[in-house]
Amino acid sequence: MKETKDYKPESLMMSHGYKPELSEGAIKQPIFMTSTFVFKSAEEGKAFFEVAYGLREKEADENLGLIYSRINNPNLEIVENRLSLWGNCDDSAIFESGMSAITTVLLEFLKPGDLLLYSSPNYGGTDHFIHHFLDKIGVNTVCFDAKDSKDEVIEKIKQTGKADKLTHIFVETPANPTNALIDIAMCKEIANEFSATNDENVIFTVDNTYMGPIWSNPMELGADLVVYSATKYIGGHSDLIAGAVLANQELMIRVKTLRTFLGNMANPHTCWLLSRSLETLMIRMEKQQSNAIEVANFLSTHPKVKELFYLGNLDKNSKTYEIYKKQYNSPGAMISFEVKGGEKEAFTFLNNLKVIKLAVSLGSTESLAQHPASMTHIGLAPEDKVKFGISPSLVRLSVGVENAQDLIEEIGLALDAI
Ligand SMILES: *Cc1c(COP(=O)(O)O)cnc(C)c1O
C-alpha cells in the first residue's frame, strides 16, 4: 500500500486526516460546532489532560484526545494536518488571523531585553506591532532591507550595542509591495553566527504569505518557522481571515501552548472553509501565476507604464535574480508597477477597473488592485516611502483566476484612460 508520504499533497487534500466512518460516512467533514467533548471515562479525561498539559509524552500511537475547542477541535486538526503536508514539516497551527500567528510567534520567542532583527518594508500590521508594542515591553529592534549585504546587516546588529542579546530574526520576502527579495540563506548564516556566541539560539522566522506554500518552502532554505496570513492564497476566496505557523515539533509545541493560553486559534467554521480552500490551492495558484505572467508581459512594453516590478521580469544579471532562482519556483502572482505621472494618473487607472476589484488584500480568486502609497503603506514615513520605492504612481495588482485576455483588455483600457 502506498503511504501518505508517497502521495503529492494535492492528492491528499480531499481526505487526509478525516475518517468518514466517525461521521456517518459523510465524504466531507461536518463542522464540529462544539465547545467541549464528552470523555468516555474519568480515566480517559485524565489521560487527555496529562498530554495536553505536557505532564507526559504522547505514546507512539496516541493522538491528543479531544478536550475543549480552545485546545483542539476536529476541524482545526484536519486543516493543520493538511497544511503540514504542503510545508513538508512536523506540524502547523492555525490562528484566527495572520496577525495573531505573527504576534504569537514574536511573543513566544522574544522577552524584555532581547534584540529582534527584522526586514523592512514589512506588512503594516507587523511593523505596527514591532514599533508600538514590542518597544513597550522592552524588546530592542533593528531593521535591514534587501539592499544590505551580510556584512552591513551584521554591522547594524553590532551598532545596537545589544548584539549578544539577538534572539530572533523575522523577515518578509518577497517584500510588499515592490517584490524586493531578502536572502533567506544569508539570514540563516547570521542566525548561526550569533547562535554560536550568544547565550541563546537565534530563531529565524519567514513570513511567506506572498509565495507559499506552493512556490517556496523557507524551511528547506533555513527558516525555523514559517508564518502565513491564510487570509491570502491559502484561504484564497476573500471570505475569511486566518493565519498559520509551520515548524518542527519542538518549536510548534511552544507556539501551540501559547496559542492555547492566548486563545487565538481559528474557529471550526473558518477551519472548515480553509480545508475547502486547500483542495484547490495548487490549481488556483497555478492559474494565478500563468495569468500574472501574461499580464506582466503586457505591462512590460506598455507606453503608459514607467516601471514594472514582477519577479518574472527581473534583469538576469542582477543579484535579485540570483536570490529569486535560489528561493522560488515561480514568479508568483503579485505585480506592482508605476504608471507615468503621479497619484492622479494612478487613481484614474484604478477608477477605470471593473472585473478587477479596487480593494486591499491579495491571493484571492478575483484580481485585486490598490494604491500602496495612500492605502496599505500610508503609515510609512515619507523618507521610507522613497527608500522602498512606494511612489505616488505605484499600483499593486494581485492577479486572480479570471481569463487572462479579459484581464489584459481591462488593464489596457484603464491605462488608456490616463
Ligand atoms: C495580510 C498580511 C498579513 C496579516 O494577515 P491578516 O490575516 O490580515 O491578519 C501579514 N503578512 C503579510 C505579508 C500579509 O500580506
Molecular shape: globular
CATH fold call of the largest domain: Aspartate Aminotransferase, domain 2
CATH architect. name of the largest domain: 3-Layer(aba) Sandwich
Structural class: alpha/beta
Tell me the number of strands. 12
Mean pLDDT: 96
Which ions and ligands are bound to the chains?
Answer: pyridoxal-5'-phosphate
Largest sheet: 7 strands, mixed
Cα distance spanning the termini = 61 Å
| Low-pLDDT residue intervals, each spanning 5 or more residues | none
The arrangement of helices and strands along the chain is: HHHEHEHEHEHEEEHHHEHEHEEHEH
Structure report:
The chain has 418 residues and is of the alpha/beta class. It folds into two domains: 93-249, 3-Layer(aba) Sandwich (Aspartate Aminotransferase, domain 2); 281-416, Aspartate Aminotransferase, domain 1 (Alpha-Beta Complex). It is built from 14 helices and twelve strands. The protein has helices at 9-12, 42-52, 74-87, 98-109, 124-134, 150-159, 184-197, 249-262, 268-279, 281-300, 319-327, 343-351, 382-387, 404-416; strands at residues 91-95, 115-119, 140-144, 166-172, 203-207, 225-229, 243-247, 305-309, 334-339, 357-358, 368-370, 394-398. The strands form two sheets. It has a seven-stranded mixed β-sheet, with helices on both faces. The protein is globular. The termini are far apart. The mean pLDDT is 96. Pyridoxal-5'-phosphate (PLP) binds at residues 97-99, 123, 125-126, 172, 176, 207, 209, 229, 231-232, 241, 243.
